[in-house]
Design goal:
7 helices, 4 strands, mainly alpha, globular, two-stranded parallel sheet, two-stranded parallel ribbon, Type I phosphodiesterase/nucleotide pyrophosphatase, 192 residues
């Protein structure tokens, strides 16, 4: 969603279209396959100035210190981790890589899955703490933290914050128009 917002707002996106739109992401992925090799081959960064590039949080740690006084501006999208886990699980099920919840062979499988989710969430929390510490430690990094949930519920406010962070050059109305609440499909169930 963030990449679509930035692109619609007027920024060029550095992508390769290797991964096309699908049921999990009907508007496409806006990804660049080469970012996965950043640690060993950061050459793609030469084409990045002035463009937006999508990196998962783990890959941020592989970014080299920029040369010639360049700085990284990072928009870090935060999302409820239970929703992230739910989304990832659904994607794996659709790809046939993991059994769906109602298909376990025995009654202990549900307990094992709950434990697995709890373990995975704990790993995510630890990882995010590491990444946020890394972001704070780098003098060449300017970061803006944006809530996925708040962006969907208050798109104009989020778009204005992002626009301010990037120097006020974006079309905020176009960014807001890119947000489709119907694509927020892995919402955490209401409690109570």
């Amino acid at each position: 969603m963030m990449m679509q917002m930035l692109h619609r707002g007027g920024l060029a996106a550095l992508t390769d279209a290797v991964r096309s739109a699908d049921e999990d992401n009907p508007r496409g992925y806006f990804e660049l396959e080469r970012v996965k090799q950043t640690k060993d081959d950061p050459g793609w960064l030469e084409a990045a100035p002035g463009k937006v590039v999508k990196l998962i949080s783990r890959l941020l740690l592989d970014l080299p210190e920029p040369s010639e006084g360049r700085r990284y501006q990072i928009i870090f999208m935060r999302r409820d981790l239970d929703e992230v886990l739910r989304s990832q699980k659904k994607m794996l099920v659709r790809r046939g890589e993991e059994p769906a919840d109602g298909e376990e062979a025995d009654t202990n499988a549900g307990e094992a899955q709950a434990q697995s989710d709890a373990d995975m969430k704990e790993l995510f929390v630890s990882h995010l703490e590491e990444v946020e510490s890394w972001l704070r430690s780098r003098s060449d990094v300017e970061a803006l933290f944006v809530s996925y949930n708040r962006t969907v519920s208050a798109p104009r406010k989020s778009a204005e914050r992002i626009n301010g962070f990037l120097g006020g050059v974006l079309d905020v109305d176009a960014m807001v128009g890119e947000i489709d609440p119907d694509l927020y499909r892995n919402r955490k169930p209401a409690e109570g």
